[in-house]
Structures are given as structure tokens and as C-alpha cells.
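User: These chains co-purify. Model them together.
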Amino acid sequence: MRTLCHDLTTTTPGAAVTLEGWVHRRRELARVTFLVLRDRSGLAQVVLPAGAAVPPEETTVRVTGTATASAQAPGGVEVTEAVVELLTEPASTPPAELWRPALDVSLPTLLDHAPVLWRHPAQRARWELAAASLRGFRATLDALDFTEVTTPKFVESATESGANVFAVDYFGRPAYLAQSPQFYKQQLVGVFERVYEVGPVFRAEPHDTVRHLAEYRSLDVELGFIRDHRDVLAVLRDVLAGMLAAVADEESAVARTGARLPVVPEEIPVVHFAEALELVGAPADEPDLAPEHERALGAWALAEHGSDFLAVEGYPLLKRPFYTHPWTGGILSADTRQSEAMAPTESSNSFDLLFRGVELVTGGQRLHRPSDYDRAIRARGEDPRTYDAYLQAFRHGMPPHGGFAIGLERWVGRLVEAANIREVTLFPRDLHRLAP
Amino acid sequence: MRTLCHDLTTTTPGAAVTLEGWVHRRRELARVTFLVLRDRSGLAQVVLPAGAAVPPEETTVRVTGTATASAQAPGGVEVTEAVVELLTEPASTPPAELWRPALDVSLPTLLDHAPVLWRHPAQRARWELAAASLRGFRATLDALDFTEVTTPKFVESATESGANVFAVDYFGRPAYLAQSPQFYKQQLVGVFERVYEVGPVFRAEPHDTVRHLAEYRSLDVELGFIRDHRDVLAVLRDVLAGMLAAVADEESAVARTGARLPVVPEEIPVVHFAEALELVGAPADEPDLAPEHERALGAWALAEHGSDFLAVEGYPLLKRPFYTHPWTGGILSADTRQSEAMAPTESSNSFDLLFRGVELVTGGQRLHRPSDYDRAIRARGEDPRTYDAYLQAFRHGMPPHGGFAIGLERWVGRLVEAANIREVTLFPRDLHRLAP
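Assistant: Joint model of the two components:
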């Protein structure tokens, strides 16, 4: 029966124990040799005679011995009278010393040696927060009566956004990798009303930035029978709170990353896009928020509302995908409504959510009437027949609906304040990288 | 405040209610018109005056009225004094009458009109069982201290199995879509010890069968510090029990599919491959089990052990992937061990799990010593350098480990005894189909 390192601390002193794990560190002192063992639960100290042969770091071993109280040992219990048995061949020297408190390596080293360097307790903790986030995401939505779905990653045409798609040879004919489950999650609102999907999305992003990947995990949500995008935002608020509650439960991982966890306000503050432009001193006819605008808005939300989160609603319709629902009212103040640039027809029931001044989520209400689709697609100079498979659901009765998508890696990156999204992605894929 | 159809049954008669959903059925009688409303929770009966205009079936509507006890209404409560408001334009005639108890359509019709025909309560129930299965899968593994991971779907080479991979134009150079997360989940055992992933896998299957898809959901599990494949099988047993418990909780969906739920025995019966060949009367030198052998073994397990599940262990090593661990003992009886064909070196610590006579799961113990990989790869006439990124983890210390993969669609297909795997896949992808 194996004892985990973490459980050694509550083992009765004198008990015979068997531990299994990696040689985290060897320390050879004059009178004694220490082997620090690492497993998924933590570390344990193993005491061996001076001069004992200890396998190289990262070798997997089985240690049998006696649990012994020791004021010096981490957790107060160590293993003495230990026998160390190799579970594999002696390990090669790791690309960095994993036993040091911080993993101080360059980004290329981290990525080239990902299978080994993710073992560092502080690095591994970052993914543990990602896994907790997924758990919190699903638990929140399951409690709200959402159904998990899976949608195809092979799609027939590159119609959704047109740009930046990957082409596949699909049994001799062209196919594309889905850039998002958007069209499918909408169709499935027609079946289940409330759906979510966690899956890979593929973006042939030709630019090399600290926040883009060619493949990332999208946490997609879509729900029917809403009044407008504010109902979507309310679900997003609960989802973020649920994700953070699950993250907070991972106390050890949070401590190892040093993450400062945000608090999700009962209501996330919302500003209209036109107000946002005013707040940052941008011209009223700017069609989008630049990264420096987002940063300024993040600072404003923190100062004004004490919130790490800020929703910007009412983005210009023409900057959003064709399925975006036009503006129907919301909180737009009378003053703003009068401004020329903000004629309601130009605005939309869509939002971005900024987290610490970076766009984290895009969402909003979608069109649901077939005639609206027809008009919106024609207005972009396209032929509705191209979208026939998608529009089938709408011709057969769809409710008012909307949704959002959260990028998992971007979420974790902001949570632990990583400089580059690749640092929080297990095996990132980008313009240059396909391995490991 | 919206009342769900299911909750109408517990609404105080006389209360004002608002329901939203789809027009499931219109029934115009001489003295009264019924509108049956459908939402995610079920159906509700709405009473309207004779001759009232009722929108076509599948139109989404809001109904306001009064909850009224009625012995004739399903659930004992119906909506009277109702006002019906359209939420979209009147729906086109559906491709089948969704209000009929059974959805009696051909497979091509089902697939061509998937976004609409999945709305049928009996069809939708099939996916509800899939979603419950995912929930049970994760809950079981979370409780066993597994970490959810995500692994890249873009891979650099087609080395894992060689055949049936999809090629992608990856920023001007070739890449492939992952056929399984096998290599990555193993590497991540080196980080987290116990991992799982639910994700799409891509198989360029050139054959058109009732049980193959070009894209399906693989439920992948891998764990370290095992003794042999029997430890893997024990986790698989718990996972299946957890999936079935979650399915059983979906009483309404189970009833709508008519599924007969199996019971997972405390220990799944196991036979060695050589014994399996004997049981079905196949020659002792057969290298694999044919579908008719699997069916016969399924019948045998039911008759002999009262079990819908049967594990076959000890498959010939040469029929398994190169990373498969050779046979190390297990239950092989002395008699079988003596047979020429079953020299221990030819057998492996791998298994298939048959569910109702069909292969559902493949799993086993993997190699973990770097020198074993070197030997196994060379034995297949390949160069270990081709696998350099993968082998990095092994050179730096890996524990004895193993795992398995369950095909979600195949699981649900067997559960509801569907004739074709496409019937239980939301939007199947195969040799011929890329839409909807």
C-alpha cells in the first residue's frame, strides 16, 4: 500500500511506509544523505546513511522505510531506515534543477523541454489552476441546467470568419478546421436550450504575439430564451465566480503560483462602448478598443468599482460577426444616446469582458429570426445559400439566444500574470512550434 | 419569470404563468384547440378556444395564462386563458413530425436534418445520456485524484500509427491531426501521475462501417505507479460504474431511449486472449479477435458471469502498438502458459474491454524504461530519433504506467443499442459527410 508524500505528515511515527515518486533532490552531507521524494501530492524527506548511493534526480523510485517524527523534516515526518528501489533506469540530467524554488529558464527552454519542466511544482501549479477552472466552469453550468455538447472540428466551408482557417485534405476534398463552435452551439440551443462545450479551436494566426496560439481551448456557452445580452452577462458572471471558487479550493497550487485571485462582483460593472471611448479619451468614431484602451479601462474599473472585471457592451455592429443582434436598449444613458456616433442602429447587443485590462471573453445576443439572417448576410455582400446548413435551424424555429466564449489559456495567463500565454499552455502550438 | 413545463405540474392552480418553448403539436378539435408546448424540461398542454390561430409546429412562442388542474392534462396541470406570442417568424414544416412518439426516419434524413431532428424527445435523450456519461467519467476520476489535461491536436509527424492520418497545411509546412492523445498523456503522467482528457480524435478511416467515424470523442485516461495492466482495469471498472451511475440519474432520458442499463460487476471478468480463442473455437494462432468472436465472447460472459462486460487480456504483442508492455504474469493458467502459441514473450499486458460483445475500450500497461523504447522501436524497423520529443520524458524518469481510451459515441451506441454510431453522434463526420 503506497503512502503519498502529503499523507506521510499524518502517518503514525514508527509505521512501515512505502512511497513512490521521483527523486526531487539529493543532498549529501558529511553525516547523512537526504533524498527528497516528489509525488503528485507534494514532497517527503528520506534519510539515508552518509555515502549511500542515491539515484540521479528525476529517477522514479520506490522507498520503503519507517515514518519518523522530525522537527527538521517538512511536515514534521520523514522516512528513516529507508530502502530505495529503482523503478526505471537512472534519469538523464534534467534541463533545469527542478528542486530550486523558482524555475528560472528562458521561454524557448521551457517549451523545448515541456514534458520535463512542467514537473516543477510552481509550473505544474499553473495547470492545476487551469484544471480547477474547467471543473468550476462545468459545475456552474451543470447546476444551471446546461447540457454539455461536442461539435465537429471538421467543417465544410470557411464561412464563419473567412480568414485564418487551417485547410485539411479530407478524403481528397478540402475541409477546414473549426475556428469556433459558434454555428453548432447555436443550432444546439434549438435542441437543448442551454449548451456548453470545452474543446480545441484552431486559428491560423499569422502573427507572433504573447497572447495568440494556433490552437487553444475555448469554453463556449450558448443559451436560449433570453431577453438580451444582459442575461448572457449574468450567466458569465456566475461562471467566472464558479471558476474562481474552484481555483480558490486549490490552496496549495494557488500558493505555488503566487496568484492574486480576483473577486467577482455580484454584478460586473458595465459601460457602453461609446462611454468607454469617452473614458479613455478616444475619438467617438473609433470602431474598436486598442490594447492601451483596454488597459486604461481595466485601471478605471479597479479605481472606480474595485473590480478586476469590466464589461463593455454595445460594440459597433459592423465590427462584430454577421449573426450579432443589433442594439435594443440596455443601459445607454440619454446623453450618450443622443450623440451622433451612437445612433442605436450602429450599436449591437454584444459585449467584451475585460479582465485586468485584457479582453478575456467575447459574447452577446445573436440574431434568431430567419429573415434577419437573410438581411444580415446580404448586407455583407454574401449569398445566404452559402449558409444553408446553418440556417436550417432558424427556419425551423429558434428562440432569442446568445452566448460567450472564454479562452482557457488566456484566463489562466491573466490569473497568474504570466508574461506569455505559452507559459501556461501544456504544449503550445504557434506559427513556429509543432513539437514537443 | 418563466415557468418550465416540468415545473407546471407543481404550480398552484390559479397562478398566472409564463412559459416559453417550441410549439410541439397543434390539435384542433371541434370545441377546443390544444397547443402542446415543449421546452428543455418536457411538455405542457395549453388550452385555446376552438379556431384560435396557433403558430406552426417548431415555432418558438411565449405563452402567458393560468395554471389549471386538469385530469386529462399530462402532469395534471394545463394552461388556460392563454395568450400566445411569437418569438420568431412562423416555422417551416419540419422534416418529420416531432410530436410522434417515435422518430421514424431514414438515416440520411436524420443526418441531413440533424439540427431539427435532434429536437425529438427520444432522439435528444440519447445525447442526454452521452452528457451524463461525460459527467460521470470526470466525477469518478476527479475523486481518484486525476488531473484533467488538454493535449495538442496538431502533431509534427504521423509516427504514432502511421496510417489513416489527416494532413494539414500548417503555415506552409505539413502537420497532422492527432489520432489519439497517447504520446502526450503518457508524458503528462510524468508531471501529474494521473491524467485524463476528453477531446476529439481524428481518424482518416477509409472504410464506411456502422461503427467508424472520422472524428469522435475519446475519453482518455493514463496513470502512473501501477503494478501492471490489472491496476488500469480496476480504474476502468470504477469509471464505467461512475458513468452508469450518472446515466441512471437521468431517469427521464433513460426512459425516452428505452435503454437497458447494464450493471458493472465489482470485478469485471477477465480472460486471457489464448483462453478467449479457445472459448470461441478459433485456432490458437489467430492474431486477433474477429467481430463474430467478440459477439460470442459477449454471449459467453453474460451466460457464465451474468456480465455485459468482459475484459480480454494478453493480446499478442505484435498486434499492439510499440509502446505496449510485454506480458508479466497475470492470471494466465498453467495449462495455457504451456501452449506453444502463448509463449509469455509473445503476449502483452494489454486488454480490450468488450461491452455487449463489441470492443469498447483498449488499454494496458506501457513501456516506461528508455532502453525498452529503444529496443521496441528498432524491433519495428524504425529509428528511435524519430520519436525524440516523445522519448524525452522517458529519459528523465517515468514510472510504470498504463491507461485506456473509451470512444464516447461507441459507448452510447451500445447503451441504447443503436444500429449505427451516426445515430448517437450530434453531427457525424465520415468518408462522405462534412455537413451539417
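Residues 5-86 of chain A form a domain with the OB fold (Dihydrolipoamide Acetyltransferase, E2P) fold (CATH 2.40.50.140).
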